[in-house]
Amino acid sequence: MSKKVVTSADVARMAEVSQSAVSRAFTPGASVAPETRSKIIEAANQLGYRPNALARAMISGRSKLIAMLVAYMDNQFYPYVVELFSRQLQEQGYNVLLFMSDPGQQDRLVQKMMQYQVEGIIMASATLSSSIARECADTGIPVVLFNRYVPSTPASSVTSDNLHGGSLVADFLVRGGHERIAFIAGDEDASTNRDREAGFYKGLAAHGITPWDRVVGGYGFERAAQAARTLFSGEVKPDAVFVANDHMAFAVMDVIREELGLRVPEDVSVVGFDDVPEAAWKGYQLTTVTQRIPDMIEATMSILLEQIEHQAVKKRAAVVGVNMVVRGSARIPSSQ
Amino acid sequence: MSKKVVTSADVARMAEVSQSAVSRAFTPGASVAPETRSKIIEAANQLGYRPNALARAMISGRSKLIAMLVAYMDNQFYPYVVELFSRQLQEQGYNVLLFMSDPGQQDRLVQKMMQYQVEGIIMASATLSSSIARECADTGIPVVLFNRYVPSTPASSVTSDNLHGGSLVADFLVRGGHERIAFIAGDEDASTNRDREAGFYKGLAAHGITPWDRVVGGYGFERAAQAARTLFSGEVKPDAVFVANDHMAFAVMDVIREELGLRVPEDVSVVGFDDVPEAAWKGYQLTTVTQRIPDMIEATMSILLEQIEHQAVKKRAAVVGVNMVVRGSARIPSSQ
DNA sequence: TTGAAAGCGCTAACAA
DNA sequence: TTGTTAGCGCTTTCAA
Prior knowledge:
The structure is a homodimer.
Chain A: H1 8-15, H2 19-25, H3 34-47, H4 53-60, E1 65-70, H5 77-91, E2 95-100, H6 106-115, E3 120-124, H7 130-139, E4 143-146, E5 156-160, H8 162-175, E6 181-185, H9 191-206, E7 213-216, H10 221-231, E8 240-243, H11 246-259, E9 269-271, E10 288-291, H12 293-310, E11 317-320, E12 322-325
Parallel strand pairs in A: 1-2, 1-3, 3-4, 4-5, 5-11, 6-7, 6-8, 8-9
Antiparallel strand pairs in A: 10-12
Helix pairs in contact in A: 1-2, 1-3, 2-3, 5-12, 8-9, 10-11
Chain B binds a DNA duplex through helix 2 and helix 4.
């Protein structure tokens, strides 16, 4: 039926040029006479020729592949990040190899990426062992941890200023006149959680206040709901809770309003972190801290592309600023 | 510093075997003596050898790459789909090349996929020109349209029974005693919208009822909000609205409750389609039609893998059943 | 079971 | 500007 796979040699034959001329015709900066090129292009179109990207990658050493490893997609933060990365990388001529990480499988997946000769790796909310990070660095593959950092690895990182974000929330809640301020933690191993929590406590301490209670929600919806139930199970209840991310905050609000019959923010204020799209939905109107995703992406892209360009991996750590968005889920400070 | 890229020849030298022996040691079914293999594996580990997947793909003709094209990620339906596909594909030994489609760029992206010698293509809520579909078929690359179909192309498709879903909603709303039933359409070019709408009208007609009004929301959040404003701008307002997907339904509910001050479902019933995770959130409790994503994925995988296996592309169209989930956003029929 | 040899489709010197 | 010539790192006959 069809001739099965057309190669550059076929095109060369038809255009009556050498095979390398065909290669040049498809290489942006190469020196080919305009007429030669158009003759070749025409033949190529006629035959339905498509350069084999794999062969090109092999010989040129440039696969134009970037791997992305993502832990989960149910928190809307990540789909948004994936979409933006994909679009921008595509625009830059790169292609995305996507991996979903199963806990414990991350190193194996990174090996896979390297087998495919990716030119860079983006790890979104996933970390890697330092031995693997070493290996990437030695191979010359830049790795950037997105929204996580690990001090002891050679991998670069891009994070928000979670420390500052946490203190912003503390400030806001204290100024709002709250007296029993609780915290629902995310994944305790995650740097995001550690920093948000540390910043929060520090901010509280600056006002001479100690956190009223603390439970762990593990960044998951169901587990956060459970955490909220625990938090509100006592006789006297918190009047404000800072939840380590928006995704959990929705679950927490559901429990507070539907199961406990309390009002938000009249009875209890809720503040999240991330500012995912749903936070602006009227059903929640979540007051939260904005992670400036576009800025984070930009920082990641520039680290990655710069290192790919210069063939030199060196650790960099970008920290992007944050700001609070005040909506309706937490009492708003009246004074000043 | 490090020896830069280790090849099978290096391993062969160290293990004192031929280079082809190394290849065999890394090929599952190949005939190698156990001792030879272990000798090779040891040398490989020592040197940090990783088979080059690109070279393997070139010679074997099996890239183990599957391309996925997605139009957008803001509707939670898609992140979920992407995650599930990725995990299952990974489990089957395949790797995912992810593309976000810009409208109009789809054909170009499919060309890219083919250049990377992908073994199959999944198009999620995106369609392709029939010429490109032809090309894929001729090249022997199976394509499956996920959640869309195009009768005139050779591409396979997997969809929900949108027709039936629409009629289910009509039935539910009529039995609920509604009298002014409106429809907010999604993307009018999409088969999903056409079928949901057709099924809905047919279901209405079966009860001798005609739709009260119809506006277009284009499957987008903001546009749907606008559509809702239009729909409710008249003197007399609808008492029920079927929104072509959940994502728009949230926007519609926001407008109805917050801007218009109407109650859901007391003043107006809202029904969506998809059953994304947020539909179960207490802030919305959206009554909707469930797309059985796991079943849809399974159907897609089996079409794809079967055709890759047998090297034969033939068009198949799977239709997956749907069912309604009754939550709180629409009045519940009392009788029977 | 093993090794030698022949490429997969392409890019990249090197001459011409 | 063009063609010739080597390979990139691997799998796969084909003999041994």
